[in-house]
Structures are given as structure tokens and as C-alpha cells.
Design goal:
This protein is α/β, with parallel strands linked by helices. The protein is about 40% helix and about 15% strand. The protein contains 19 helices and 14 strands. The chain has an eight-stranded parallel β-sheet. Strands 11-12-13-14 form a four-stranded mixed β-sheet. The protein is globular, with a radius of gyration of 23 Å.
Length: about 500
């Protein structure tokens, strides 16, 4: 059976970070600790390395290995001693040969999944009425981040926390109050940091003006990198402008700020654009700079019964194709191969996924409607992770080939757009806008007037950003990605992690 090293295949592309689901890591970790969390007779016969083969952070045992991931304090065990056991997939990984970005859980706090004492958010220990609940939460989160992650995001309060209905919980009314709360957290994290993780300064703002105000307020803080939230991760024009700001203000210096993370995007077009930006920043500013991005789509889609079936990489569009997975009790015990492609799928039969037979009772002692048990969802998640990473890497490789063999001039973009002609006619694989974007990046980072180059090409950047802005809201970690279904080729899907996991719990 195949073992695939996806780390080596990533070459110098921007790095996709799977936002690891608590559901997924629990299966890996509990199996590591007990050996029988998944009963032996439930493990697929062709899983020669057992459940550990689905632990992509373990290069020796994994059916496909991949050294990068994101894990969030928002659904973690914050007691670090317990986390070492309960989250061993992350905590006991080979740290010199893996990378975890720690999410501070700001998304879950703003939504109320993690309870923050908003009424006493700004209190300090020297106040007579000090209660300390907010500080204790900050301390638990920071301790976990310092214990767990190579890099971590500071505990920001995104601007959407001031919007209805969340503002009723947070008490925040506008972006200034969100920014003030973030600055308070930033100061707390600076004073209490332990030196075991590097921190990313999170940039928020729902439009250009808000984003500029936010940037000016936090840019001086002594953190080791940047996380792009709000409109900074939706609008490519703003993103490029921010990269020039960071470059010109010496805020991307080697050894000081070596990481830029783009929050919550799975769009294939953005993976290619971020690769182009990363390469030019490495060439012209900081040879050690890394750009990464995350989404939870492979995990959360599974909660809705979706499986990655194939992908589109053509000059019309880049997208993932997903559809409802086969779910039929009549397939229980079947040795028909799973008809999709991955190192996971090639080890599975339909009977490994469609587990429940007619009349078979689930863990609650009831006969459910689905043939899937909880482990079925885990298996589909493992397949989806591989497919997502592989599609990102394929999109980058195809773009490299087309860019290397195609000459374009930015001045031709509008003319080509109006005529609906194809670039070079020989390009079957890559959307024309991405080819032009690569040329634009070359000019932006070589120009003495980069902002003029960006402004002169606003229409192209608007085209490249419109899908992102259309499918996203200003959430910090929305799992938004472009997908296609057989009956709805241009649909976009939006998943909320808590909602998805609740749905999964109900099903299994």
C-alpha cells in the first residue's frame, strides 16, 4: 500500500494548515493511549498500521504524512497535564519535525462557546473589586499555547464581536471597543509570556479604514509575526498593500518576524496567490519568511456527510468537488472498494464506512437512519484531509507550469477580459487571472511606486477577491471554501464548527 509524503511535495508553496478537529484528534489520541478506543474488529483490514496511520503528523507511521497543522484552544483541553494525554496527537508529536500553530480561541470566546467575563474584562489586580475570572481564562489559554504550539495567535477580539446578536453577550458596540479589548489582551500576553512559543499579531477590520486604524494601533507591539483577519484576508488589494506596509516599515525582518498567517481560507486561488507573494517576499525581504493559511473544511464537511470526490483545475476555475458520501445499510460488510482516490481510500472497502446493518443498534441502543458510526466519520475526514492538501499542491504546480510557459502583459488584462479570450490558447489548466496576478506581484515588489501599481490594477484584484468576499463574513476562523456539487456547480459552503460538531454528535 502507498505511503505519501505530502511535506516533500509542498516544495516552496504557501503552507496550508489543516485546522485539526477535536473529534479527529480524539480518535488518534485515545487510540494511542488505550489501544482499543476503536475496537480491533472495527479497524479496516487493510490498515496495516492501524489508526496511527491516519496521524499525518507521524511521518514514520502515516499513510500520508504532513508536518503542519493548526490546533485551537477553543476546543482544546486547557489543563496541560490532561492535554498531554487527551491530545497526544498534538502534544506528543515529533516536535523538531512538525509544526503546530496555536489558535487562541478568540472565535469561540466571542461566540460564547468559551465563557469570558465580559462585564469585568478590563479589571486589574490592583482594583478593590477584582474578581479575576477574565485573567484566569487568559492565563489558561496562554499556558496551553506556550505548552503546545510553535507559533500562537494572540487573544484578539475581532470586530464582528460588536455586531448583533453577539454584542448582547460581549457588551461591545463598535470596532474601537474591540480594538481596545485586543490591546488590553496584547499587553497582558506581553507581560505574562513564558518564552516557549512565538506570537502572531492579529490584524482585524471589516473594511480598509478599520483595517488601517487597527494596523496603526498594534504594529509597534513586540510579536514575532502576523495573522491576517477581517478584510486583510478577504481583499487581495488590501493584503498586497499591507505586505508593502510591513516591508517598508521593517516589520518583516529576518529572525524578528518570520511568519504571516492568513486566517480561515481554503480557496484554491488564494493558495496560489499566497505562494506568489511568499516567493517575492523571500526573494526581496526575508529569505526565511513563511506564509501559511488554514481552514477546517476537510473535517467539518464530513459532519454534513460530504466527501471530496474530485477537483476542478481548469482555466475556468479552481475548486473542490464534494458530494454526499455513500450511506446505505445494504453495503454493510461489502468488500467493494471505496471509489475515490487517497492513501486512505485505497485501504477501505464500502463496508468499512457503511458499518451498521439493517436492525443493528448504535451506542445508544437504538437503530439510526445512517449506516455510518462515529468511526466512519473519522475515516472520511482522513480521506478529505489528503484530498484537500493534494488539491492545493496540484493547483500550485499547475500554476507554476503555466506561468513559466506563458507571457502576459498587465496592460492586456482588461482587453482579454472583455474579449473573453483565453491566455495563450494552450493554457487549459489555470484561470487567466492567476497568471496575470503572478505578473502583478513581480511588478509590485520591483517597483519604486508599488502602491501605484496596486491601484492601477484594482480591477484585477477586485476580480480575484470577489469570491472570497462573497463567501466570507468577517468571522475570524470561518471554514469557507469554494466547492462544487453535481447539481450546483458554483455553490459555496459555509460551516460553523460548533454547529457541525453538534450535528455530528446527534448523528452518531
Amino acid at each position: 500500500m502507498t505511503q505519501v509524503n505530502l511535506t516533500e511535495r509542498n516544495k516552496d508553496y504557501a503552507v496550508f494548515l489543516p485546522s485539526i478537529s477535536g473529534f479527529y484528534q480524539t480518535h488518534i489520541s485515545k487510540q494511542q493511549q488505550t489501544g482499543d478506543f476503536v475496537p480491533q474488529d472495527r479497524i479496516p483490514a487493510q490498515f496495516e498500521r492501524g489508526i496511527e496511520g491516519c496521524n499525518f503528523l507521524n511521518p514514520e507511521q502515516a499513510y500520508f504524512s504532513y508536518k503542519w497543522g493548526l490546533y485551537s484552544a477553543g476546543h482544546a483541553q486547557l489543563d496541560t497535564a490532561k492535554s498531554d494525554v487527551e491530545e497526544s496527537m498534538v502534544q506528543q508529536r515529533d516536535r523538531p519535525n512538525s509544526f503546530i500553530l496555536g489558535d487562541s480561541g478568540g472565535f469561540q470566546i466571542a461566540k460564547g462557546v468559551i465563557q469570558m467575563d465580559w462585564q469585568n474584562f478590563f479589571e486589574t489586580p490592583n482594583q478593590p473589586s477584582y474578581k479575576g475570572e477574565a485573567d484566569r481564562l487568559r492565563q489558561r489559554i496562554q499556558n496551553w499555547l506556550e505548552h503546545t504550539a510553535d507559533y500562537s495567535m494572540i487573544l484578539d477580539v475581532p470586530s464582528w464581536a460588536a455586531r448583533p446578536p453577539l454584542n448582547k453577550r460581549t457588551g461591545l458596540n463598535n470596532i474601537k471597543e474591540c480594538l481596545d479589548a485586543t490591546l488590553f489582551n496584547n499587553d497582558w500576553f506581553i507581560r505574562n509570556r513564558q518564552g516557549n512559543t512565538k506570537y502572531l499579531n492579529v490584524l482585524q477590520g471589516s473594511d480598509d479604514l478599520e483595517a488601517d486604524v487597527w494596523y496603526d494601533a498594534v504594529k509597534h507591539l513586540p510579536f514575532e509575526g502576523w495573522a491576517m483577519g477581517g478584510n486583510n484576508m478577504q481583499d487581495m488589494k488590501l493584503f498586497l498593500r499591507r505586505m508593502i506596509n510591513l516591508r517598508d516599515e521593517k516589520l518583516l525582518e529576518k529572525g524578528e518576524r518570520d511568519l504571516i498567517h492568513v486566517l480561515g481560507t481554503g480557496l484554491l486561488e488564494w493558495s496560489v496567490m499566497l505562494t506568489a507573494v511568499k516567493r517575492k517576499l523571500r526573494e526581496t525581504v526575508n529569505s526565511d519568511l513563511e506564509i501559511c493559511f488554514d481552514c477546517a473544511s476537510p473535517f467539518l464537511a464530513t459532519a454534513y456527510g460530504q466527501i471530496y470526490t474530485q477537483h476542478v483545475h481548469t482555466n475556468d476555475r479552481f475548486s473542490y468537488i464534494m458530494d454526499k458520501a455513500l450511506d446505505d445499510k445494504r453495503l454493510a460488510g461489502s468488500d467493494i472498494p471505496l471509489p475515490w482516490s487517497s492513501p486512505i481510500a485505497e485501504r477501505l472497502n464500502m463496508g468499512d464506512v457503511c458499518w451498521y446493518k439493517p436492525g443493528m443498534l448504535n451506542k445508544l441502543g437504538k437503530e439510526g437512519r445512517t449506516s455510518w458510526d462515529s468511526f466512519s466519520y473519522f475515516l472520511m475526514m482522513a480521506h478529505n484531509i489528503y484530498q484537500h492538501i493534494e488539491s492545493v499542491q496540484r493547483a500550485n504546480a499547475l500554476t507554476d507550469a503555466v506561468v513559466a510557459s506563458t507571457d502576459v502583459a498587465l496592460s492586456d488584462w482588461q482587453k482579454k477580459l472583455k474579449s473573453k479570450s483565453k491566455i495563450g490558447e494552450v493554457n487549459k489548466w489555470v484561470p487567466r487571472n492567476l497568471v496575470y496576478f503572478n505578473e502583478l506581484v513581480e511588478q509590485v515588489f520591483s517597483s519604486e511606486r508599488p502602491m501605484d501599481v496596486i491601484n492601477d490594477n484594482s480591477a484585477l484584484l477586485e476580480e480575484l477577491s470577489k469570491n472570497k468576499r462573497h463567501t466570507s463574513t468577517n468571522t475570524m476562523h470561518g471554514a469557507f471554501f469554494e466547492t462544487e456539487a453535481v447539481d450546483n456547480a458554483d455553490s459555496a459552503m459555509e460551516f460553523d464548527e460548533e454547529e457541525a460538531l453538534e450535528k455530528l454528535q446527534e448523528v452518531v
